[in-house]
Amino acid sequence: MRALCNKMWTLRIMFATGVVLLACSGFVVHAGQTEPVGIENVTASPQAQPNEPAKTSLAPTPIDPAPIDIPVAPQVPQYGTDPLLGLVPLNEFAPRPYAPDASGLRSVEECCRIGTTSQQPALSRFFHGNMIEMTKEAVLTEIRIELDFNFQADLTFVVYRLNQGATEFTPIFVQPTTQNGVGLGMYTVDLVVPLTLTPNMNAGVPVATLFLVGIGWDEAQSITFSRDTVNGAQSFCRGEALGYWGLGQVPPAPPLGTIPDLNVSIFSGAVLVMDLCFEIPPGACCTGASCSVVEEANCTGTFTAPGVACEDVSCPLPLGACCQPPDTCIFTNQFDCEGNFGGLFDPTETCDIPNPCAAPFGACCFFDGTCGDDMAEPDCTAMGGAYDGDFSVCAAANCPATGACCLLGAGCLQLESALDCTSFGGVSFQGLGTHCFDAVLFPLDPCADTVLGSCCRYDGTCDNNVEKFDCETPLLGQTPGIWTDGGDCNVQMCDVL
Fold first, then answer.
1. What is the spatial distance between Cα 452 and Cα 473, in angstroms, rounded to a whole number?
2. φ, ψ for residue 250 (rounded to 5)?
């Protein structure tokens, strides 16, 4: 056993009758209390090497703190200073949604990935990890962190918790291990005694609580690690990863003590790539009208979801329509819908015809007087039609033929007659079956190529460059004019009409 003397653990081993293991130094300060750190032998090796010989390490027993009442939940700003790169441009980061394992399988342990490798820096003597925020109690069983090295390294896994006054982080788990590097992989520590991450309480109600989960290594050992600098802050299966943290100073003497006055750099533009594994809690199980909280495997009725209490459900579970895009309907309960099918649940609907998950449909009237049944409104509009309403049918629809009505100066309306065109201020009705210009559907502009001529008005005056429609349509009660194709008022005589 190598003595860890470089400001780490002081261990005095005494052999008498039997083996007595005493921790002569090493206390963890938490919430104003001092507790001795227990010592035990554990096996720690890289996940990629299951047959690696066991390494003996000193593993303090995790401290499971009692909930703490705090006046308000601490506010965490979005920081723009990267502990590695310094001040960098930073947009507002919204947490990236957590994507559950595609297999959908559940076991006694669920491992939640945080981050995808996009950058691999190398550093010596640096404690770093992720700040996470949790509002529900969870039992941590394993920490995996992506590293890359090919030598024997002393790695220390840590979990810190924000203290009562929101002024410092206090260690609640510290475990040194010695691991043989095998290149890029997830280097793991199994928590022999699972660590319960309990949120703080405010008036008996759990509030968002901050934890720092990370790793450090011995001085002079340069280890490459993986960060996600593309997605930044993101959600994971038990909470939110708010960003990467780095302690840019030599950690305090063993047992690490506290990080005073939030003296860590938090960067929401990146996260350390890691897996956090948690026990899967029991959930409400409905058997008829009765409810019990059991593991899913022990539920003989209908299981809701892990962590759901009987107080939150009504047994038997109500059924309804579960909609999966684009138009699939499954008749089931809410937990099955959301947990297994990823759908949207509506307890007021069934999957009977008409399908409640299908887009609304109806009759579509076209400009030439024809009609199409069973069309969704967006499809009807895209084809230049007029949607007649949800669940309408052509047999009962009023689909008159229309034509293009050219407005004075610019513009066009689709109307049913020349009279309608005049009443809307139009100057030229192009006839039934014509359609206003549309760059995609109707690229020919009926209002662009009108024939011009001369017009003899009712009072004997003459106008050049007038459309026939404009000349022969009575405006404001006036007598219609006489239009001459290509005529010229300079050589044309007009009589009073």
1. 15
2. -65, 125
